[in-house]
Design a protein that fits this description.
By secondary structure, this protein is α+β, with helices and mostly antiparallel strands. Strand 14 and strand 15 form a beta hairpin. The protein is 26% helix and 34% strand. Helix 1 packs parallel to helix 2. The protein is built from eight helices and 18 strands. The chain is globular, with a radius of gyration of 21 Å. The chain has two domains: 154 residues, Endonuclease Chain A (Endonuclease, Chain A, 2-Layer Sandwich), CATH 3.30.870; 100 residues, Beta Barrel (OB fold (Dihydrolipoamide Acetyltransferase, E2P)), CATH 2.40.50.140.
Amino acid sequence: MLLLIIFLSIEVFFSPNGGARDAILKEITEAQSTIDVAMYILTDRELSKALITAEERGVNVRILLDGKSAEEIGYSKHHFLSSKKVVVKLDDTHKTYGDKYEGIMHNKFAIIDNKVLITGSYNWTHSAEELNNENLLIIKEDSNLIREFRQEFIKLWNRSEIVAKPLKTDPYDLKKLKNNVGKWVVISGKPTNWNLSRSGHLFIDFGRGKDQLTFVLWKEGVEKLKEEGFDFERLNNVDIELKGKLIDHKKYGLEITTSDPEAISISE
């Protein structure tokens, strides 16, 4: 008689600060061949970097996000991941109710090497890790359950669209900027001035006045740059590249505002 022994493993984590992010990072780091992620919102910097590292070492990484949320949330990592050659798709194919209420891609799961399932209420965000009460399950070697999740991922993946590259433009082309308010953009050029406010925020101006573009990196992002040894004096008289969602604030005019330190880089 053939005796089949299945070593099923289930771990549970709760947040805030219950080890969920570290558990996910461990599974991503140990991935050998594939990582498929279906996530309503993905803004976590550490998890995004781990996914990029996995892709760079040969793991096939696919990220599926809710399209509306990704485009509306200024901290979404979909463009950052895509710029690092991770394949990202956005799902905008939801059903509507009476042409008024639209559904969302509200899944929160990942499948690693077709052996590990990560699921629960936990979005891959800073808030889920440090603020919200969330739950996270990591289930290993349950082939039937993982197969069900894989089939759902493939269905959603096939109906979704690859992330479009953001518009690249000059920060002083005001006509082009105003025609693209509400969209994700990449800005390249020399700022006229910059300053760190008393509150710890970074302001980078392209011209003066309400009609000009201002980039704002909130204190959280500035602190991250400081931790990494970013030399702010290099912003003087040098081309920089900025990424983010362009808005037209009623009081302050054209702006990109973010707490994401990945949104700013100095052209070499």
